[in-house]
Design goal:
single chain, alpha+beta, 8-stranded mixed β-sheet, 6-stranded antiparallel β-sheet, elongated
């Protein structure tokens, strides 16, 4: 008697093990299809446009530095000089205030490959900036003195101490407004820039001032620089070039002292309208002194990523609004970026790219902590934040979550069969258990390909209805009566409905799953509370 019961239970356990192996095979298929979909989307980005990362625009000023030379005066008859050659570097001027606004439209129909599509966005980015040059000029003067004090080259000089002073030449006439974007294919038209209410068209750099950084640039008009210049120098029509050295003689031939006057502290107002398209992610690198970013989009399921979450956000059925302001990250970016760009002879590079990976810490170059920029061949990684436009119908993730309850569903179905067998004295053959288990297994075989074609809830309903209908029809002949078949079919349909409800509640699915298991166990215990298991045949 007990031997028959143990044999039947062993068969049920064996079938569950076999189906768990089959479910793991389906899981590998889900993983394979997911990787294939990712590879297709990656191909789309290579052919069209990548995720975008935008660095807040800033002004770059090329400079030429001539290191100091010191002579060896030990032998006055044979003076030896060893001077380092001049080198170029770039100084940066960050905005004293920046208000950035991003208005984006997102859709999944722009880029498609068969059943796969990439989530793309298209919109307008606006930067409203204000620059003042007083602090910048002080910094440039300090830079010139620092070079002088640190110079250790040996050479001949007419000075009494046999020292030739270093010299820093700042080329204000070549100052550029730099507008970086990680993939310029997404900039359909060159942005329009308004400088002190004067509209200027941006252009691509013919000779990049900053290597390994993709950007468009705008020439700062000479008349704008002259408006900010020292009024006493307006009659000097030579190029806007300044020098900084220990001897403050700026009146040497061929050198002008014309530069923005720090006492005037006039502001340079710049408005940038940047049209931008991209895929999947959009991140922004804040720079300047006071930076705020506001973003509006019609996408309902944003995933905020990066080094800072929004200070305020609102998500509705019409889209979302979010705003960021993080002074620490902005100041840190200023330090890292200015140190890197001002490295002699472009010995440091700024890495700027964004990938499809939504795990932001490993997704791209500009989110990790910044590298040390001292020395040669260094790279700097800046801090950024933004949004990933997550798909609301990730069929692979939802199917994978449904798979987690697959073995429980099969076990409950077998248990229901077993209870009918012991409570109603029905005789069910192990082959019938196997066929019912196969029908439950086919549900997951149907679910994935259907979900790739239609919405997940529709695919779930179609697959569940097909399997419940097939098992309900078969149970009529297994139990030999309509009543028992209806009860079993209703129980199975309730299980599918309950599992879908658990899948739909992302925040409470673990809690609801635990409560569901408890309720099922309680029902079994209540139904078998008076059963004498020693008499079960």
């Amino acid at each position: 008697m007990q031997k028959t019961l143990l044999t039947k239970l062993s068969i049920i356990v064996g079938l569950c093990i076999i189906f768990s192996i089959g479910l793991s095979m389906i899981g590998s298929i889900i993983y394979e299809r997911q990787n294939y979909a990712a590879s297709v989307i990656k191909e789309i980005t290579q052919q069209h446009v990548n995720p975008q990362e935008v660095i807040t625009p800033f002004i770059a000023i090329p400079t030429t530095v001539t290191p100091a030379c010191q002579s060896d005066a030990t032998d006055t008859l044979n003076v030896k000089r060893k001077c380092e050659p001049s080198y170029s570097k770039t100084e940066t001027v960050f905005a004293t205030q920046t208000q950035a606004a991003q208005d984006l439209k997102v859709n999944t129909d722009t880029y498609k490959r068969g059943i796969y599509s990439a989530t793309s966005y298209d919109g307008q980015l606006t930067f409203d900036q204000s620059y003042t040059f007083a602090e910048t000029l002080e910094n440039l003067d300090q830079i010139g003195n620092t070079i002088d004090n640190d110079a250790d080259s040996v050479g001949t000089s007419p000075n009494a101490d046999n020292t030739q002073l270093a010299k820093t030449i700042t080329h204000w006439n070549k100052a550029k407004l730099i507008i970086p974007a990680s993939d310029l294919r997404g900039v359909a038209t060159l942005p329009t820039v308004t400088i002190n209410q004067k509209s200027i068209k941006a252009n691509y750099p013919q000779i990049p001032m900053i290597e390994n950084l993709t950007y468009v640039e705008v020439d700062i008009p000479k008349d704008v620089l002259e408006q900010l210049s020292n009024p006493t120098s307006q009659q000097n029509k030579e190029p806007l070039v300044t020098t900084g050295s220990k001897d403050k003689n700026l009146d040497k031939p061929g050198v002008s002292s014309q530069l923005p006057n720090p006492k005037d502290n006039q502001a340079l107002n710049i408005v940038i309208d940047l049209p931008l398209a991209g895929i999947s992610n959009l991140t922004t690198v804040p720079t300047g002194q006071n930076f705020t970013l506001s973003m509006h989009s019609d996408w309902q399921t944003p995933n905020f990523i990066g080094k800072a979450l929004p200070n305020t956000k609102s998500i509705t059925a019409e889209g979302f609004d979010a705003s960021w302001q993080n002074q620490y990250l902005t100041v840190a970016n200023n330090q890292y970026l200015s140190q890197c760009i001002s490295a002699p002879n472009h010995q440091c590079t700024v890495m700027s790219e964004s990938t499809l990976n939504t795990d932001f810490e490993s997704s791209r170059g500009l989110t990790a902590d910044s590298a040390t920029v001292a020395g040669s061949n260094q790279s700097v990684l800046l801090n950024s934040f933004g949004v990933s436009f997550a798909s609301p119908n990730d069929v692979y993730l939802q199917t994978e979550r449904a798979m987690k309850y697959a073995l429980l569903l099969i076990l409950i179905s077998f248990g229901t069969f077993f209870l009918f067998e012991v409570l109603k004295s029905s005789r069910i053959h192990p082959i019938q258990y196997l066929l019912v288990g196969c029908a439950l297994f086919v549900f997951y075989v149907l679910l994935l390909p259907l979900a790739e074609q239609i919405a997940f809830w529709q695919a779930y309903m179609v697959a569940a209805s097909a399997c419940v209908g097939l098992i309900g029809w078969y149970s009529y002949y297994v139990f030999g009566g309509l009543k028992r078949a209806v009860i079993f079919t209703a129980t199975l349909a309730g299980l599918y409905a309950a599992f879908f409800g658990i899948l739909s509640t992302e925040d409470l699915n673990l809690l609801l799953g635990a409560i569901f298991c408890f309720v099922i166990l309680a029902c079994v215990m209540v139904m078998t509370r008076k059963l004498d298991w020693y008499k079960v045949t």
